[in-house]
Amino acid sequence: MPEIAMQIDIAAPRAAVLDALNTHDGLTSWWTTGVDREGDVLLFDFPGVPEPFRLRRERADRDRVLWANAGAFPPHWAGTWISWDLADQPDAPDRTRLLFRHGGWQPGSEAGVPMVAGTWAELLVRLKDYAQSGKVQPYFVTTMRHDEQ
Asked: Which InterPro entries match (predicted)?
């Protein structure tokens, strides 16, 4: 089963990276402006996509953030999970080393993995920029909620 894995060093403390991954303002600053939640399920809206991606927050602590796909959409994400493992950079305890993984791809979904990996690479750069500078630069900008269509 394929897995996307990327590591990036961020010149920001772990708390700043955690805020970017765990708060509405953080997520809307680098990923998509369409973020909502239903309890522990995060809803991510994207332009031109008929329904939100639903990711259940399984864990969110100092060392790891873990989300599991909580819906049937998009179909090629069924059964996948996303993890963000955080550690101090060697010799720089005020900086963060982030290991990102997106795994659990089902047989037959492999064809979409390279496209998803490319998007995650761009998103990680935006996450890094936001955590380091506070620069708001979401990759996806939505103008309409799904329930308003």
From this structure: START-like_dom_sf (IPR023393)
